[in-house]
């Protein structure tokens, strides 16, 4: 079965509407898809209608931002009860946090001689699809290009928006432990997103995985799109060592980008796939792992 457990729509920072993402995945042979927009469930209803029509299996998904060890970490939740009060409350707070963050990014850019960023980023975002969510960094990047402050998105991230730069505002996220706890309360299957993307030493990455498990996490995202095969190998070793389930996904955001729906490196065959548990009668419970 061809699966893709990580992708984005206009409900967060993707450029295709949820129904278009589902149709594109279906065209590309994906049979099981999880839409994992950042900190929102907004796209799920539209995605589900499209998936039902096409006969594609859609799994409830979300990519939640949190902090650990001074860094922003992403955690993927799957097959949860979307109406779980803990999840609804956490998303409400994140939604507010994202607006505060967007306002702070705009203030900082204005202080550097780049005014109007919030309105500009919002206009970019609204042109892609109507959303009540705050504009995200790709929207700010597009604004900076259009306003002539940078040549392209790469320069926008290198100079202003990337990790450690002025646009990297992270104080509003909850901790890793809280986020995993929230997902457990919603009876989600939980995977640590792209553990190689964080700029960590080997030992810090191992500590992250250990803390993630201690908090109640189930899986590692061993394959994220076309990340180098050595990284997949390194993550497979970690997954085996800690006895974890494995998840895979394209992390698709936009056509013509570095990723595409259903496209990712192969998962080493000995690793237990997380998605085989989605239909399990032994659902994760909100208590012990
Ligand atoms: Mn994203
Ligand atoms: Mn991510
Ligand atoms: Mn993602």
Verbal overview:
The protein is of the alpha/beta class. The chain has two domains: 3-90 and 174-226 and 242-282, TIM Barrel (Alpha-Beta Barrel); 93-161, Orthogonal Bundle (DNA polymerase, domain 1). Helix content is 40%, strand content 13%. The protein contains nine helices and eight strands. The chain has a five-stranded mixed sheet with strand order 4-5-6-7-8. Helix 1 (18-27) links the parallel strand 1 (3-4) and strand 2. The radius of gyration is 18 Å and the shape is globular. It binds manganese (II) ion (3 copies). One manganese (II) ion binds next to loops.
Quick structural summary:
With 289 residues, the protein is an alpha/beta fold.
Features:
single chain; 289 residues; alpha/beta; TIM Barrel; DNA polymerase, domain 1; 2 domains; 5-stranded mixed beta sheet; 3-stranded parallel beta sheet; 9 helices; globular; binds manganese (II) ion
Give the SSE layout:
Layout lengths: L2 E2 L13 H10 L4 E3 L9 H11 L2 E3 L1 E8 L2 E8 L6 H27 L5 H12 L8 H10 L6 H9 L14 H10 L3 E4 L9 H14 L3 E6 L4 H14 L2 E5 L40
Parallel strand pairs: 1-2, 2-3, 6-7, 7-8
Antiparallel strand pairs: 4-5, 5-6
One manganese (II) ion binds next to loops.
């Amino acid at each position: 079965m061809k699966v893709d457990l990580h992708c984005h729509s206009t409900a967060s920072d993707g450029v295709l509407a949820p129904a278009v993402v589902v149709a594109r995945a279906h065209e590309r042979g994906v049979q099981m898809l999880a839409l994992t927009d950042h900190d929102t469930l907004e796209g799920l209803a539209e995605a589900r209608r499209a998936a039902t029509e096409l006969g594609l299996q859609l799994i409830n998904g979300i990519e939640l931002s949190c902090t650990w060890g001074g860094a922003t970490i992403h955690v993927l939740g799957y097959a949860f009860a979307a109406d779980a009060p803990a999840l609804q409350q956490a998303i409400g707070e994140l939604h507010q946090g994202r607006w505060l963050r967007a306002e702070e990014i705009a203030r900082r850019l204005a202080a550097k001689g780049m005014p109007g960023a919030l309105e500009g980023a919002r206009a970019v975002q609204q042109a892609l699809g109507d959303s009540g969510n705050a504009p995200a960094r790709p929207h700010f990047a597009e604004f900076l290009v259009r306003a002539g402050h940078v040549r392209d998105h790469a320069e926008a991230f290198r100079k202003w928006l990337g990790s450690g730069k002025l646009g990297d505002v992270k104080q509003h996220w909850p901790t890793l432990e809280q986020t995993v706890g929230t997902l457990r309360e919603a009876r989600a299957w939980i995977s640590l997103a792209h553990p190689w993307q964080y700029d960590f030493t080997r030992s810090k990455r191992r500590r992250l995985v250990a803390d993630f498990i201690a908090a109640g996490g189930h899986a590692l995202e061993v394959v994220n799109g076309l990340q180098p095969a050595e990284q997949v190998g390194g993550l497979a070793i970690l997954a085996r060592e800690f006895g974890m389930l494995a998840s895979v996904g394209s992390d698709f955001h936009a056509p013509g980008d570095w990723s595409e729906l259903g496209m990712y490196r192969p998962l080493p065959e000995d690793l237990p796939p997380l998605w085989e548990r989605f239909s399990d009668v032994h659902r994760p419970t909100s208590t012990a792992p």
